[in-house]
């Protein structure tokens, strides 16, 4: 069953929708609308293979089959009844997953149950399987709108197969990639001063090496009637948007002060195949004297209760910012993400950097701010 151009609903980190839209456009999509934690794009059928293989800031690629204004469960039922049964396939199993954003007279479970019943009634030969379905239907209500879509991804793309060690305050790889893009880095020297498990250096290195986001995984689209193995192989073949400069060993550096986390970072480097590109240093970045300057510093510094409270964090940020004039090249860029973004922005300004942007978003359950500054 072939499918021509259509719309896809891409989920991403809330607050970084513009970054994900730009990445999707770079990969051949045409962004048409941004919503909270979502980007709607247009493109051909092959786009689902390309985005799943190469998009580093995106969590899921959903094939959008309809959007409807809903006020109650009757509207939800009517929307579900009109789904294209061909996209599910005769004799196939399905499950409905739902999320809501806003105030409604129904729950997410109500939405999933109502859409599921409507699809069963409309599409003969289908069965519900909540454990291992052939097709996952998304029924997400955002404000007054219901978005019906088919999941082509399966497990979220932000769950990377290379991560063997999880730092207790680890950053999502998708957010790490968004920060790298926010910095403007496109293949140059880059330092993560608080490297933890090396997520930021690894994401930069994999992008530079032209490696796919996942080498081994069972994508949800392989169970759909529209699946085209030949098209998938072609789209996964080579990086469709390579960086202009070939990767160079030692240009990406991570510094970690705690031996336990340093050892964990080395495990992640080994698993990701980036040991030849990323150099990890065991040491304190607040005292470390680098042998060279860096064009970019992208980092996820300590914050929150585990870091000793706001007063201690403010002092840490001032010390970090004071080091940047001797770490960054003239005109270099620093990006740091933290819940205490005001304190970070103040520290960077006090150290003589010019704050260019503070982008607010969500990291898990936390609201954070990514502060971008330039050494002028």
Summarize the model shown.
The chain has ten helices and 16 strands. It has 376 residues and is α/β, with parallel strands linked by helices. The chain has two domains: 6-151, VC0802-like; 173-213 and 239-375, Rossmann fold (3-Layer(aba) Sandwich).
How would you sum up this structure, described in words?
The chain has 376 residues and is α/β, with parallel strands linked by helices. It folds into two domains: 6-151, VC0802-like (2-Layer Sandwich); 173-213 and 239-375, Vaccinia Virus protein VP39 (Rossmann fold, 3-Layer(aba) Sandwich), CATH 3.40.50.150. Helix content is 30%, strand content 28%. It has helices at 17-26, 47-54, 73-81, 108-122, 173-183, 199-209, 229-235, 259-272, 310-327, 341-350; strands spanning 6-12, 30-35, 38-43, 58-69, 93-97, 100-101, 127-128, 135-142, 145-151, 190-192, 252-256, 278-282, 294-299, 328-338, 353-363, 366-375. Strands 1, 2, 3, 4, 5, 6, 7, 8 and 9 form a nine-stranded mixed beta sheet that branches. It has a seven-stranded mixed beta sheet with strand order 12-11-10-13-14-16-15, with helices on both faces. The mean pLDDT is 95.
């Amino acid at each position: 069953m072939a499918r021509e151009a259509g719309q896809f609903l891409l989920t991403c980190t809330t607050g970084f929708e513009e970054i994900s839209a730009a990445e999707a456009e770079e990969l051949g999509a045409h962004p048409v609308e941004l919503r909270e934690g979502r980007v709607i794009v247009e493109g051909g059928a092959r786009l689902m293979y390309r985005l799943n293989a190469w998009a580093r800031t995106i969590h899921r690629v959903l094939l959008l089959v309809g959007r409807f204004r809903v006020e109650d469960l009757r509207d939800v039922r009517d929307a579900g009844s009109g789904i294209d049964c061909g996209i599910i396939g005769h004799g196939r199993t399905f499950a409905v997953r739902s999320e809501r954003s806003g105030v409604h007279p129904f729950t997410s479970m109500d939405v999933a149950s109502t859409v599921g019943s409507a699809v069963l009634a409309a599409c003969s030969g289908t069965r519900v399987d909540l454990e291992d379905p052939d097709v996952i239907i998304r029924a997400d209500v955002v404000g007054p709108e219901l978005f019906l879509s088919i999941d082509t991804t399966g497990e979220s793309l932000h769950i990377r197969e290379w991560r063997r060690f999880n730092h207790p305050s680890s950053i999502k790889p998708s957010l790490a990639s968004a920060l790298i893009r926010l910095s403007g880095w496109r293949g140059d020297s880059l330092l993560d001063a608080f490297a933890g498990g090396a997520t930021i250096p690894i994401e930069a290195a994999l992008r530079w090496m032209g490696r796919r986001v996942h080498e081994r995984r069972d994508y949800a689209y392989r169970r759909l009637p529209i699946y085209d193995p030949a098209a998938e192989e072609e789209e996964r073949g080579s990086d469709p948007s390579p960086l202009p400069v070939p990767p160079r060993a030692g240009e990406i550096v991570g510094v970690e002060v705690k031996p336990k986390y340093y050892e964990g970072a080395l495990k992640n480097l080994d698993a990701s195949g980036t040991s030849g590109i990323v150099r990890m240093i065991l040491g304190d970045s607040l005292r470390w004297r680098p042998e060279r300057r860096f064009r970019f510093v992208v980092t996820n510094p300590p914050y929150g209760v585990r870091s000793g409270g706001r007063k201690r964090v403010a002092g840490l940020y001032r010390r970090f910012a004071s080091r940047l004039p001797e770490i960054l090249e003239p005109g270099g860029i620093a990006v740091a993400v933290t819940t205490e973004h005001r304190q970070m922005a103040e520290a960077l300004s006090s150290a003589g950097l010019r704050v260019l942007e503070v982008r607010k978003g969500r990291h898990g359950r936390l609201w954070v701010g990514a502060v971008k500054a330039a050494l002028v």
